[in-house]
Structures are given as C-alpha cells and as structure tokens.
Amino acid sequence: MSHEAEYHDNMVTMLELIWGKGYMAPGGTGNVAKLLDGTDPGGKLILDIGCGIGGPAMDMVRLHGAHVVGIDLEASLVDRAKADAREAGLHEHCQFLHVQPGPLPFADESYDIVVSSGAVTQTPDKPSFFAEILRVLRPGGHFRCYEWMRSEHEYSDDMLYWFKLEELTYDMQTLEQYGAFLRDAGFDEVSTADASHWYRTEVRREYELIQGELYPRMVELLGQKDADHFVENWRAGVIVCESGEMRQGYCGGRKSL
User: Fold this and answer.
1) Is the pLDDT of residue 2 over 60?
2) How confident is the model at residue 6 (pLDDT cuts 50, 70, 90)?
3) CB-based burial of residue 153 (10 Å sphere; 0-12 exposed, 13-18 middle, 19+ buried)?
C-alpha cells in the first residue's frame, strides 16, 4: 500500500522557519545529541527512520562522525534530502531512500543504531514497528526516539481541534505504553524520559515568534492564508501542551548481545 503525501511545500517551509534548515521536528542539533547520547556514534552505521528533508541525518554525520541511511515514506522529502546532502558534500556518508509502509527493506542485523523523531507517532502498529527495528539492529545496538505522545485521558475538544489544524495522521500513545511496547518487542535497557516541560516552554516561545517578528516573513513565503493557518495551529498547540494533554518524550532500548 502506498503512502499519501501529507507534508506539502508550505508546511515544510514553515517547519524549517521554526525549527531550522533541514529540520521537521523541534530541538535541532540538541535533539540529535540527546537521541545519540550514550550510543558512541562515531564511525557507526545509523538508520534514521522518518528522515524528512535530512537535517538530523546530516548533523549525525557532521557533528557525530556517523554514517547514516535515512528513510521516509514521502518521495519529495527524500529528493530534497538527497539534493541537500550532495550540496553539503555529505552524500558519501549520508544516503536517503524512499520506502513504502511495512517491513523495513533491510537485512537482519544491518545497523548499529536506529533513531527516529516523530515517525513512531504516525505509525499505527507500534509493536510490529519496534519488532522490525529490533530485527535490523546488530547485537548490542541502540534504538532511540523522540515522539509526541498523549495523556491517559480521552481526547478533549481542544486536542481534536489541534489534530484538524495539523492535517497529519497521528496515532498517539502514552509514554508508559511506549516503554511497554519496547519491552514486549524484546529490547533490553528500556528507558523513557518525559520532555513535556521542555516543549511547553518551547512551543510558547515559537508561538510568540510566529505571531510577532517572524509573521511578515511567513506571509512573504507562504501567503496570508497559510501564514494565518499556522499561527492558529501553533495557538492550538500551546493550549494542548500547556494543559498536559499532549506530551513529548524520549524512549529507547538496546538489543541484547
């Protein structure tokens, strides 16, 4: 089954304005460092699932000395990542592939490290997904992800409104469920860390930026209609983050030796 593209050009442009060139998730190079903390990435082969336009993967090469294969379901994002990697002179260490939903197209024990930022949030069958990640990891290999998650309560009208504005497919679970999924898949050394406090502060800063000094640039690049849509989108995001209904977290585990 093919994947229907959801990240249109103006959305990608907006995400880069907020989160930095090449980034479609928050945190920038600091988030990459957190994902790789304790994994000793220098010279290792990393699989970046949901690589988007490639900023994090290229920083894994530039700043951490890794070799990276990035995969994504959206061909236009992969094409952009390939072009940017070649322009940056990183294409020999950073490969990008367009893939289809389903099993990962790699042999068993292919990678030292697997990372993801946001892709698990949009994956409905998380147990099968984690089992695939475990399969392609080498013994002793690490998996790390940063994801947007839900609270244990039923979705409020505020959350449903934010989903409508996002126009993306989400399948959110709690941080505790992520830990359980990883343990059930067979990972050792499973860890979970709530990052909600950090992003509550960050999303408020982002909202003030886009309705203020960044707004004229948004109108110039995106047009009035889309600029106003993203201002409202972020306003709604502030509400669900500050209420604690939408959470953010890091989690991961290790494949046994």
Assistant:
1) no
2) confident
3) exposed
The mean pLDDT value for 76-102 works out to: 96
Please answer whether residues 25 and 146 qualify as being in contact, where contact means their C-beta atoms are separated by less than 8 angstroms.
Answer: yes
Bridge partners for 55 per DSSP: none
Q: Are 81 and 54 in contact (CB under 8 A)?
A: yes
Total residue count of the chain as it appears in this document: 257
Over residues 183-210, the mean pLDDT reads 97
pLDDT per position as a tens digit, 169-179: 899 999 999 99
The CATH number that applies at residue 55 is 3.40.50.150
pTM for the whole structure:
0.95
DSSP 8-state assignment for residue 145: E
pLDDT value, residue 198:
95
Query: Does any domain span residue 58?
Result: yes
Q: Which domain holds residue 172?
A: 9-254
Number of domains in the chain: 1
Closest Cα partner for 121 from 232, 16, 234, 247? 247
User: 182: helix, coil or strand?
Assistant: helix
Instruction: Indicate whether 3 pLDDT > 70.
Output: no
84 vs 89: CA distance, rounded Å:
9
Alpha-carbon torsion angle 201, 207, 212, 218, nearest 10: 130
Pairing of strands 67-72, 188-194: unpaired
Whether the Cβ atoms of residue 112 and residue 211 lie closer than 8 Å to each other: no
pLDDT of residue 5: 72
Based on the number of CB atoms within 10 Å of its own CB, is 83 exposed (0-12), middle (13-18) or buried (19 or more)?
middle
